[in-house]
Each structure stands twice: as C-alpha cells, then as structure tokens.
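Hi support team,

I've been running sequence recovery on a batch of backbones for a student project. Most finish fine, but this one hangs at about 90% for roughly twenty minutes before it completes. I'm not sure whether the input is malformed or the queue is just slow. I've pasted the structure tokens below so you can try to reproduce it. Let me know if you need the job ID as well.

Thanks,
M.K.
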C-alpha cells in the first residue's frame, strides 16, 4: 500500500507530518518539550488516538539520536528515582486510555501542562537558591521525583506529552542545559520503548502505522542536527524560557482544539 494513502492523507498533510517529525528531532537535541507542537500536528492530520501510535516510533528515533549526542551528560541517580514512579504512571495512563475519549484526554493533559508551567515559574521566582540535581537524595526531592514521575508516565502514555512534564521537573531540580538534555534523552528512550507493547496492545501501532513511520523517520535526522547546532548558541536563561514557553503552547493547543 502506498505510504501516502495509508491514512487517506494529501501531499500537504504528509508535508505537515514531515515538518512535525523534523521538529521532533530538533526538540530532542535542543528544546525539550517543543515536540508538543508535533503532537498537535499529528493529531490534526491523523485520527487523534491513532496519531499517538504513529508518533511514538518517530519519538524513539529522536531519542536514539539524543542519547548518541548527550550520553555523557545523563544524571543517573535522578533517572533511577524516576523510573518506578513512571511505570506506575504508564499503567494508570493505559487504563485511562481504555476509558477516556479524545476530548477528556486533551482537556486533562492541557490543564496539567499549564499548571506545571505556572508552578515552575513561581518556584524559580521565589526560590532563594536553585536546587542541585543531587537534591533527589533528600526526602523532599524523592517525593517530588515520584510525583513528577507518575505524572510524566501518565501523560506520556495517553498523549506522548510527557516531555513538558519532565522538562518542568528537571528545570525545578536545577539542571543545567547539557545535564538536562542528557538526562531527558535516556529517560525518554527507555520510557518510550517500554510503551511500545502497551500501544500495540491498544491497537495504536500496527503495520500501516509503521509504514508511515518509515517515511517520517528520515525527517527526524536533519531536525536533530539542527538542534545540536542551535543548542550551542542558546544561553541557559533563554533555554529555560524556551522550554517553559513550549510547555505553555502545548497546554493551550490541547485545551483550545
């Protein structure tokens, strides 16, 4: 079957999906959370629930490139704290997908993302000093890691929207730019790969979706190289502002669709 007609999409619609795939590569190596725009494009062109299954392999391709680029900068104590809570969130998200329709999913996640952005901005303006990444060893740090982990697992399962949630957590934990990108790269590679059986079980990934992915993954690579070029030209303050702005945009587009 011709890839261009798999979902009865036009040439312009495929071009939009290709741009979204390029943006995935850019977000994975430059501004994490910016791929919420990709989520919106996929959901606009394809059926809303099916779009999450098509987008997942594209995200995994971006994750692989991000790991290859920033593998030396990951903060593994943070990752080990997050994974058990994320697993709980993924299971809860799977159950939620079985029950909820598209409108409930979009509204819930949009509200969560805006709340995350507001809390992070407030914390960063009122804190006397930034926390260091190793703050996850404190009791408060462990509680925060578990809370964000469950929320991140939930949102990444139901709409591939875990990026902004984890961005807010890593920013609130005081990660600098490269540590942020390295830690999030490994986090999402592991989490997104673990989601594949759940998505396939829900019928969100099948042979047709994988054929479309095969055409789209090629656009992730130039996006990743563009992100790698851009990140070296973005200072820390601008980096944080872009991450928060991408989160707000993602939340608003989910609420207003």
């Amino acid at each position: 079957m011709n890839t261009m007609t798999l979902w009865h999409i036009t040439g312009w619609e495929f071009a939009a999906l290709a741009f979204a795939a390029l943006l995935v590569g850019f977000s994975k190596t430059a501004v994490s959370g910016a791929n919420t725009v990709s989520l919106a494009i996929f959901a606009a062109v394809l059926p809303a629930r099916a779009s999450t299954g098509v987008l997942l392999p594209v995200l995994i391709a971006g994750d692989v490139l991000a790991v290859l680029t920033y593998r030396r900068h990951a903060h593994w104590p943070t990752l080990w704290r997050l994974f058990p809570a994320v697993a709980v969130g993924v299971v809860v998200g799977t159950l939620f997908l079985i029950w909820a329709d598209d409108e409930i999913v979009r509204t819930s996640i949009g509200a969560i993302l805006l709340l995350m952005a507001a809390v992070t901005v407030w914390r960063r303006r009122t804190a006397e000093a930034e926390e260091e990444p190793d703050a996850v060893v404190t009791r408060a740090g462990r509680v925060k890691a578990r809370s964000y982990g469950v929320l991140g697992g939930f949102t990444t399962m139901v709409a591939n929207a875990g990026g902004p949630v984890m961005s807010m957590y890593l920013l609130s934990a005081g990660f600098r730019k490269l540590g942020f990108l390295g830690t999030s790269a490994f986090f999402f590679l592991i989490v997104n790969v673990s989601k594949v059986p759940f998505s396939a079980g829900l019928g969100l990934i099948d042979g047709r979706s994988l054929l479309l992915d095969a055409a789209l993954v090629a656009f992730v690579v130039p996006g990743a190289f563009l992100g790698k070029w851009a990140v070296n030209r973005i200072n820390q303050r601008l980096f944080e502002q872009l991450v928060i702005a991408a989160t707000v945009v993602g939340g608003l587009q989910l609420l207003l669709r």
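--
Follow-up from support: It reproduced on our side and the slowdown came from queue contention, not your input. The first helix runs from residue 11 to 29. No action needed from you.
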